[in-house]
Write a structure and sequence with these properties.
Length: about 290
C-alpha cells in the first residue's frame, strides 16, 4: 500500500495476489512445463512438416520399405511409370536380389553385417516369401545396389545402417513416418533424395546408432556408465519422463528439457538401471520388430 501510494499518489488497498503471476506457485510451474511441451511439440511438428514437404514417398503400395529403396535407386519417375505393374515388378526385383545373394554366398556379401550360410538362406527366404520386406532383406539390397542405407527414427532418436557401398559413399536416407498406419494409402517412409533434411554427420551426432536390428545393444560389460548416460540422453530422455523411466511410462510434461534436472536424475541411476531402461526403450521400438 505504501509503494502504491508513492507511485500513484493515492491510497488504495493492494492485495498480495498481484504477485501471484510472478511467483513459483504450483500453478505457474505447471504452466511453464506446458509451455515447454508446446514449444517442443511445435519444433517436432515443424521438422516433420519439413520432411513431408521435401522428401519423396511411396504411397498405395503394400511393401513400403521395398518401394522406398526402389525409388531411391531408380528414381520417382520410374516408380510412377510402373504404377500399374507394381506386383510383377516387385516380385522380379526381389528375385534378382535373392539370386545375387545366393550367387555371391555368405563369404562375399560386403556389408556391415556378419552373414553366415544359414543367415544367407534366411535373407533369401525373407525376400521371396514375405509380403512385406523385413530388415534382413536390406542386407541383400545394400549389397546388390552397392549403396549405404540409413533408416532414421526422429521420435526415438535412433538410426540403423546397412552399408554396402564399399567406400563409394552412395547413400540412401529413409525417415520413418511416425504417423504411419498399415492402411494401403499411408506411406511408411520418407525418402530424402540428395540429403536435403540432414547430413550424415548431423544424423550420426544427434541420433543413437542401432548396431543390429535384432539386438539393439551389446552386453552391459561393453559400456562404461558414461557411455550409457550419453545413449540415454539421446534416446530415453528425449521422450520419456526421467522419474518414470524404469516403469516405461510416457512423458506427460516438459521437465526432461531442463538440463539440470536430467543430470541430477542420471547420476542417481546405477549402471544396471541405465542399461535396463535403454534396452527396454529400444526393444519396444516398432522399427526393431520390422
Amino acid at each position: 500500500m505504501q509503494l502504491y501510494h508513492i507511485f500513484y499518489n493515492e491510497c488504495k488497498p493492494v492485495s498480495i495476489d498481484i504477485l501471484h503471476s510472478f511467483s513459483f506457485s504450483p500453478e505457474n510451474i505447471q504452466k511453464v512445463k506446458k509451455e515447454i511441451v508446446i514449444e517442443e511439440t511445435e519444433i517436432k511438428n515443424d521438422f516433420l512438416q519439413k520432411i513431408d514437404n521435401q522428401c519423396v514417398k511411396a504411397t498405395h503400395v503394400q511393401d513400403g520399405l521395398f518401394w522406398s529403396i526402389y525409388i531411391a535407386v531408380y528414381g520417382y519417375h520410374e516408380y510412377l511409370r510402373n504404377k500399374y505393374n507394381y506386383g510383377k515388378l516387385e516380385v522380379r526385383e526381389k528375385q534378382k536380389i535373392a539370386d545375387f545373394v545366393l550367387t555371391r554366398g555368405n563369404n562375399h556379401l560386403n556389408t556391415n553385417y556378419k552373414v553366415t550360410r544359414s543367415f544367407c538362406g534366411e535373407i533369401v527366404a525373407d525376400l521371396i516369401s514375405l509380403p512385406r520386406m523385413v530388415f534382413s532383406g536390406l542386407i541383400g539390397m545394400c549389397a546388390f545396389y552397392k549403396k549405404d542405407i540409413y533408416i532414421v527414427d526422429i521420435i526415438k532418436h535412433t538410426y540403423i545402417s546397412f552399408l554396402g557401398s564399399e567406400g563409394n559413399g552412395e547413400t540412401i536416407i529413409l525417415y520413418r513416418n511416425p504417423l504411419h498406419t498399415r492402411k494401403f494409402s499411408s506411406n511408411e517412409y520418407f525418402i530424402d533424395i540428395g540429403l536435403t533434411i540432414q547430413s550424415l554427420e548431423e544424423i550420426r551426432e544427434k541420433y543413437f546408432a542401432i548396431e543390429h536390428y535384432a539386438k539393439p545393444l551389446k552386453g552391459i560389460s561393453a559400456y562404461l556408465k558414461t557411455d550409457l548416460e550419453n545413449i540415454a540422453e539421446k534416446t530415453v530422455f528425449t521422450s520419456f519422463n526421467i522419474e518414470d523411466m524404469q516403469t516405461g511410462k510416457a512423458l506427460s510434461g516438459g521437465v526432461l528439457n531442463e538440463k539440470k534436472c536430467k543430470e541430477k536424475k542420471i547420476e542417481v541411476l546405477s549402471k544396471q538401471e541405465l542399461y535396463n531402461s535403454i534396452l527396454m526403450y529400444l526393444s519396444n521400438d516398432d522399427s526393431m520388430k520390422n
